[in-house]
Model the fold of this input.
Amino acid sequence: GNSVTQMEGPVTLSEEAFLTINCTYTATGYPSLFWYVQYPGEGLQLLLKATKADDKGSNKGFEATYRKETTSFHLEKGSVQVSDSAVYFCALSDQVGTGGFKTIFGAGTRLFVKA
Amino acid sequence: GAVVSQHPSWVICKSGTSVKIECRSLDFQATTMFWYRQFPKQSLMLMATSNEGSKATYEQGVEKDKFLINHASLTLSTLTVTSAHPEDSSFYICSAPGHLSGAEAFFGQGTRLTVV
Done:
């Protein structure tokens, strides 16, 4: 079945450092890919998405490019801030009959950013 | 954008009691909703798919008699944790799926359940 693998954390960076969180996926067909963020004590928020190969999703300085040839969707940010400390989930959408698309998540990567 | 509201956001209950968690789609109809469970510092595990007008579909290893799911209307799904035990303490999140290719799911705020 479809699955998502992302790098284990925690990742600890200093403020203004460059961030990369690796994500690869296994899927039949061409799923849409997502990054969700979960701040402490909160639910999930969509950070960015890409729906087809070579698409680049971007939001709040974060970027990820849908790479079909390497089945990857790595998350990057050029300069992290303390407020970026959170758990980041890579995910893909998997069609469920006629009921829409369910989300399959990676394990999550916890990011700590130090001032 | 579409909004999913989950209630309560946190609950503490005694062992042996039952707890009901509600998930509502506020501005759209959802024939399907998903229930996830998240253990501390772990990912979200899909528990079951809630289907309006029919029985829920449970993932392997999830006890359907313990986690009762009811999808009473096109805007409401409920998860009842029956005879709760401390090991049921967790963060439970519902979501309504996107219905278009590429559409993201919409998540509730989550419910933190603590069983004492």
